[in-house]
Amino acid sequence: MLQEVSNASDEHSDYADDGDEASVPRSEARLPGSAAVCGLALAGAVFLPLLPDGTTFFDLVVAAFSRGLLEGLLTVVGLGSPFVFGLAVALAVWLPSLVAARVVRLPIALLHSQLIVVMWTVWSAGGAIAALPMLGFSVASAVAFSVQLAARRASSSGGPSLRWHIQWGAMMVVAIIVWVRLQMFAGFHFRWALTLALAATVLLRYVTRSRPAS
User: Fold this and answer.
1) Distance CA 100, CA 56 (A)
2) Hey, CA dihedral for 63, 65, 67, 71, is it positive or negative?
3) Is the alpha carbon torsion for 110, 112, 117, 121 positive or negative?
4) Residue 49: pLDDT over 90
5) Residue 22: which pLDDT band, with cuts at 50, 70 and 90?
6) Alpha carbon of residue 5 to chain centroid
7) Phi/psi at 31 (5° precision)
8) pLDDT for residue 4 is more than 70
9) To 5 degrees, how large is the angle CA 9–CA 10–CA 12?
10) b/e for 4-34, b at 16 or more Cβ within 10 A?
11) What's the CA gap between 65 and 76, in Å, rounded?
């Protein structure tokens, strides 16, 4: 997983500087429509069976809101950040690159912060498989993500492109889903919402990969 962080951080070479802080990617190709389809598929997984009894993530969100507005919002932006990321990608296809990058960046930031909190809680409680390595990955990836964004203000090379944001976010979602799937060996079982989310995210990384200059 840590190697994935290193690989993703090398993919944001398409930068340019327009002379001020709001640097934009250099002639970034428009995202294909298939990226929007993948994003919608990831977001749509909230309506598919997640738990063994058929409960969907949408059901969990509704139940959280029934207990309180704050709990509902925290469920959506916290545990639901991978699905929000998918929705952001679908919207990004139709937005200018600079705006789209900011839209996609928000759920990624939420994902990083929530992952650290969740993994610390899981590791402290014990019983989960590979909780400590996943906690280390969550911290390392959050630091690497922050460093990449800070580099935008520290250099004249511009900031990470929209495709880089999507590649990074998809890498994080894949890592999370694979770790959750691993918990089946500890007796925690999930249904096929995670399978669809994983397939959509892997495909998203494929269709938004950087292409060699012609």
Assistant:
1) 29
2) positive
3) positive
4) yes
5) very low
6) 13
7) -65, 140
8) no
9) 85
10) ebeebbebbebbebeeeeebbbeebeebeee
11) 10
